Amino acid sequence: MEVWLWVVIGMMALIIVALLIKIYILQKAAKEIDNAFADRLITDTNTLIDISSGDRAMRHLAGSINKELRKLRAERHRFQQGDKELKIAVTNISHDLRTPLTAICGYLDLLEQEEKSKNVERYIGVIRNRSEVLMQLTEELFRYSVIISKGNNTIREPIAINGVLEESIAAFYVALNERGITPKIQMPEDNVIRTLDRSSLARVFSNLLNNAIKYSDGDLEITLSETGEITFTNTASGLNEVQVGKLFDQFYTVEVARKSTGLGLAIARTLIEQMNGRISARYFENKLSICISFPDIKV
After folding, report:
1. What is the rounded average pLDDT of the residues 150-158?
2. H helices of the chain, where?
């Protein structure tokens, strides 16, 4: 009886060991699939998932995932090609619009020198206003197409955000004064250094200051913290939470904006993301706050 008991115990022990080995092999295969799948999602490669396990079920799973990866890769290439063609088309269209618009503005200048009735003057004024808006939109569209085509080919260097922000505010002094805006500025005494593209950062600040001029009720607070967060805050009673949620959308404008193209904040967001930064908007008690942050130079 004892012999049979030991035989049974031995067989059970072998079964347990075999099951443990099987579980280990399956876990190893699952980990290989998980790691390979994560890698294929972030890298542009034609290499498919391969596992060391000979288990039929796990190899079938890897094959199914490879099938979906092929579809995903085809869709990605289709999207990238379409995106590239769209960028080229936008650049060409915006470039082609410049010539006739310049001619229109030139002939308007000539018309204004001619003798004309009050009605004609009014009509010319309307045409001039609409032409300027269209010219501004064309310029912004061209710049936007250049920026999104540029991608991550920016010139990065350690720069003091304080200095760029001060220069940008000084450049907008006259425009802010015309709107009766005297900005309240808070900056740390020490320079806040980040590795960024100087021209891109200056363009971001320029667009945000333009945004304040469009939407502000007459106030503006600009804060730069020691941690590198830049906040633009102003009263904007003409906005609501729904509109603020769409401010970064391409071509989105609201009625209170003066000659807005709807591309300024979209360009700012694109440039910030190219520099690995973040931008967000918040609306509370009629106050619009746009916050920018960049990772520390040591990160």
Report:
1. 71
2. 2-42, 56-112, 118-150, 161-171, 173-178, 198-215, 241-245, 264-274
